[in-house]
Specification:
The complex is a heterodimer of chains A (170) and B (169). With 170 residues, chain A is mainly α. Chain A contains 8 helices and no strands. In chain A, 56% of the residues lie in helices and 0% in strands. In chain A, helix 6 crosses helix 7. Chain B is mainly alpha-helical. Chain B contains 8 helices and no strands. The radius of gyration of chain B is 21 Å and the shape is elongated. Classes of the chains: A mainly alpha (170), B mainly alpha (169). The interface between A and B is large, with 59 and 58 residues.
Chain lengths: 170, 169
Amino acid sequence: MKKFAAGFFAGAMVLVIGTFGYLRLGLLDVRSDAPLPDMMARLLYAGIHASVRRTAPKAQNPLPRTDETLIAGGKLYLNNCVGCHGEPGKPPSDFGATFYPPAPQFPREGTKYSEAEVFWIAKHGIRRTGMGAQGPYYSDLQLWSLATFVGRLPNLPPNVLEGIQQHPAK
Amino acid sequence: MKKFVLGFIVAILILLIGCLAYFALGFSHTRADTKPSALEISILQSAVRASVRRAAASVPNSLPANDDDLVAGGKLYVAGCQGCHGDLGGPYHEDRDLFPPTPQLPHVGTQYAEPELYWIVKHGIRMTGMSAYGPFYSEKQLWSLAAFLRRINNLPPGMLEKIRPKKTG
């Protein structure tokens, strides 16, 4: 038993010291312009999804599910999110692809997050990614309209898409 | 000896599985609108620093930049970087939305050398808001930006005015 404990202790030390040594020696690759390995991507996205599901309150969207809500959210999206997340009806964002992990392209991929979760992410951001918290800049209602809109991508009603593009907000 | 080896393996398995479970079950924190702890900052910063130093060691040293290069780099900064890294000549604003927070370069400057700055702008820093700009800038632009960044909190007199001509009227 004593030997087992000594081995256990040694194993733990080797792992911890090894990790710190690896970091300290600069062996961790930090460049963003390298492909994210599939295995890493799966772990990363699963971890973020699980954390958001655990943290985001199960809030009810206070806005009516109307075209007006979608158009209001769509205008916010067009003004502030397309740079990284891509514009509906356009090719994916080159800029979003230069982040590590890359910015998801909602107009093509949609999202597996619920509206309440999208609201929470937009408000608080996702750490260790390029997703900044938008809470300091937008009201909750604005963020809810944005969440409603993102939740409907990539299947927008045609009149909503027109409504957004006809009156681009300044 | 057998028991020692067994203990060794069990410890490593428990730590690895524990880490994976911690993330997979959603116990890690995701929100970006908080501050990283001082310990986390120091561990990660030194890891990034060591990695960049290693990676940029093979980058050839740039030719010394003249004032025109600095002005060109400064204009690139104003157009492409200051949205996150802080307004040139503006007051200090704490970064409230990205985690880890973006260094406010006009105020804190940088400890990186020019070839390292060139490398960072070109390739980005993963798992931060710093994306790779290699696809968007020429080599010359990257080098002028690096030369400017190196001196950003210690610019030669008159340089700021050349980069951002004062609006008249």
